[in-house]
Amino acid sequence: MKNISSIIAGLLFLLSGLGKIGNVIYFQNLIMEYGLSYLNILAPFIILAEILIGILLIFNIKTKIVSICAICLLLIFTGAFTYAWLANGITDCGCFGNYLPVPSSPLITYIRNIVLLVLLGIVYFRGTEIQSVENWKRVTIYTIMFTATFVAGMTYKPFAFIEHKHPFEQRPISQTNLKEYNQQVVGSSLIMFFSYSCPHCINSMENFKAWQSTETVENTLAYVVVDSTNTNTDSLRMVFMQRYPSLEIHEVEKDRVDFVEAFPTSFVVRNDTIKHVIVGELLSPYLFGN
């Protein structure tokens, strides 16, 4: 029972870390959406801690102290999500990043965390402190953690959200790369860039449709950013089109929109000037106002 609990808990922590490590700035943005602002600089360290805890649990190493650390981390995560849900209306915890689009809701999140706490409790009370660790396990841990640190560093931007103002904000659209995506559009507009695999993008779709049906702006444009190397694009596109068959979208290559660092990102254009940049889940037009 203890070994099974340790492996299951370890796999969940490992998947959570691996799901976010390829796009650390996405996790940074998620922390911002939680309302925790400057804590986004801790994003890569949280991810690496999840991966290390997962590996140690799977390998049955120092399970007592590791399970205590895991319980503390999980309680912090649960508290942060509760704050984000109640204070900022976040319903998807984003625990597994944007590469593992696991369905989520407050109920699912709490049930998963409770189950995980039970598993970790079993590991703690039945765990033993193994003094010796096989060499192959040491080499595996060092290799994985070194690789994970390198990968995390590729997409980590420690000061990305210190300045909240997007460089395009309050600039004429003609002086930015956004002009290419607003051609032949007259009047005010909302331009949203999103990803098929981003849960926060999916959560924004109903609000995007609400922007279309109200007079908050005169035009709405939706661009989905795709990666030509992603083999899951076709299946993700099919799922999205089945869910939103009437929504007109345009696909654009990832390399062409380097000004979009997190998904979704929406631009509100009025009088040929980018008035607002909304990074994260799109607000309802009724909450956004004018």
Structural features, described:
The protein is built from nine helices and five strands. By secondary structure, it is an alpha/beta fold. It folds into two domains: 2-154, no CATH class; 173-288, Glutaredoxin (3-Layer(aba) Sandwich), CATH 3.40.30. Strand 1 (189-194), helix 7 (199-213) and strand 2 (219-226) form a beta-alpha-beta unit. Strands 3-2-1-4-5 form a five-stranded mixed sheet. Helix content is 49%, strand content 11%. 34% of the residues are buried. Helix 1 crosses helix 5.
- The strand line-up of the biggest sheet is 3-2-1-4-5
Number of domains: 2
Based on helices, strands and strand pairing, what is the structural class? alpha/beta
Distance between the termini: 58 Å
Profile the largest sheet: 5 strands, mixed
- How large, in whole angstroms, is the Cα Rg? 21 Å
Architecture blueprint of SSEs:
Blueprint: H1 2-21, H2 24-33, H3 43-58, H4 63-88, H5 106-126, H6 135-154, E1 189-194, H7 199-213, E2 219-226, H8 233-243, E3 250-253, E4 265-270, E5 273-279, H9 285-288
Parallel strand pairs: 1-2, 2-3
Antiparallel strand pairs: 1-4, 4-5
Helix pairs in contact: 1-3, 1-5, 3-4, 3-6, 4-5
Q: Which key terms come to mind for this protein?
A:
290 residues, Glutaredoxin, single chain, alpha/beta, 11% strand, elongated, 5-stranded mixed β-sheet, 49% helix, 2 domains
Q: Brief description of this entry?
A:
It contains 9 helices and 5 strands. The chain has 290 residues and is of the alpha/beta class. The longest helix is centred in the N-terminal third of the chain and has 26 residues, at 63-88.
